[in-house]
Amino acid sequence: MIRKLLTIALSGTFAFSAHGADYDATTQAYIDQLTSMGLPAPKENQLVHIPPTMADLEAADIHPELKKVIRKGYDLFTNTQQLRGEYVFNNMNCSSCHLGEGRMPFSAPIWPAAVTLPGYRGKNGHVNNLEERIAGCFTYSMNGKPLEYGSDNMLALSAYHQWLATGVEMYPKQPVYGRGFPAPERPAELSYDNGQKLYEENCAICHSEDGSGLRVDNQTVFPATWGDMSNNWGAGIVRLFTAAGFIKNNMPLGQPNSLTDQEAWDIAFYMDSQERPQDPRYTGDIKETLEKFGPTFHKHSLYGQAREKDGEILGDHDNTGEKPFLKPDSIRPRTFD
Ligand code: HEC
Ligand code: HEC
Fold first, then answer.
1. CATH code assigned at 101
2. How confident is the model at residue 21, as a pLDDT?
3. Is 176 helix (H, G, I), strand (E, B) or coil?
């Protein structure tokens, strides 16, 4: 039912307005559907793009071989568990965080990466292309190992991202409507106890009280919000503002914006106070890791801090979950000197 809602909200032919508020009828109808679900309307001058659906793919006038590759990319994105044990070591699919098959605004739609990369990324301090950006989510969010650059599966996954961006200019000058997980303003105080109470009332029914989610027949029904089967400490969603933004606009599933800003932040604070697999950038020493990656990343997470409830230092362990290694070789510096 919820999935159906997302599909209805996201289907339609593609069209996009380059000029602020003057949207064509298709774009306006798309925006109306999103706002009626509780999502914010575009701000003036934002780029609104309606990514094509799989039905549009079937109807498109492109080479059948290309269709096949894009279909494969879609299949990998929505059922990433097929790579379990080799490239993926937790219960996530890419679509566990990128809702609506990677098309949903405010749920980090994936197509902007295809039109803004190659670009500089602060997280690894060098210019990344689309493959390396995808590799990033494998490394941290999937607690895994990236597909080899140039491999068949990497080509398919990249093709799916690029095809979703059909019609958008490269390096658009306008900011993209609903890009990333826009965060509500951080309240003055965050409450662990209130976060726990709200999580148990609103989230545990699907994600379970211990954060382990639900799996049936080796397929993920509800992904794990923390613990060994969740993303590791290096994933973007462990930043409090990113988690709060995700929760505010996407959870509980099908009820965007039903929580207040304070509630979304308190739940993010509670979730981020639980353990998960080690950050692959771990040097073997949490203080040293924090010194290296605090300024660019962990200053936004609770990694390395004492948990409010019991003083446990978060992330102070060498547990990598189900993954039999710590560092995939994608974690290397790149220089052009
Ligand atoms: C645990 C949640 C999670 C999972 C699972 C996940 N991602 Fe992400 N992804 C994120 C976050 C967080 C961001 C950063 C959003 C932001 O900019 O704040 C992101 C960003 C991206 C972007 C960049 C979007 C942009 O606006 O430029 C791409 C592309 C992407 N992810 C692809 C993938 C792919 C492919 C997979 C599966 C292999 C995947 N993600 C799995 C959380 C996740
Ligand atoms: C009706 C069931 C349901 C409820 C209730 C629900 N979720 Fe989710 N949640 C999902 C599903 C399903 C996904 C993955 C999306 C997909 O696969 O389509 C998800 C994804 C997530 C993710 C990203 C992946 C991960 O596991 O880290 C987070 C974080 C999350 N939910 C947090 C919450 C929070 C916090 C609440 C309560 C405010 C909540 N959810 C309530 C079903 C639910």
1. 1.10.760.10
2. 60
3. strand
Give me 109's structure tokens. 């739609």
Q: Above 80 in pLDDT, residue 14?
A: no
Distance 143 CA to ligand 2 centre (A): 18
Is 24 a member of any domain?
yes
Count of domains in the chain? 1
Nearest-5° angle of CA 212, CA 231, CA 221? 45
Position 18 in a domain: yes
Identify whether 305 is part of a domain: no
pTM (two decimals): 0.94
Q: Is 15 exposed, middle or buried (0-12, 13-18, 19+ CB in 10 A)?
A: middle
Find the residues whose C-beta lies inside 6 A of ligand 2: 95-97, 99, 202-203, 205-207, 222-225, 230, 246-247, 251-253, 267
Q: Is the pLDDT of residue 9 over 70?
A: no
- Owning domain of residue 97: 2-164
Asked if the structure places residue 325 within a domain, the reply is no
Query: How high is the pLDDT of residue 333?
Result: 78
Residue 337 CA to ligand 1 centre (angstroms): 29
**162: its two tokens:** 């690029």
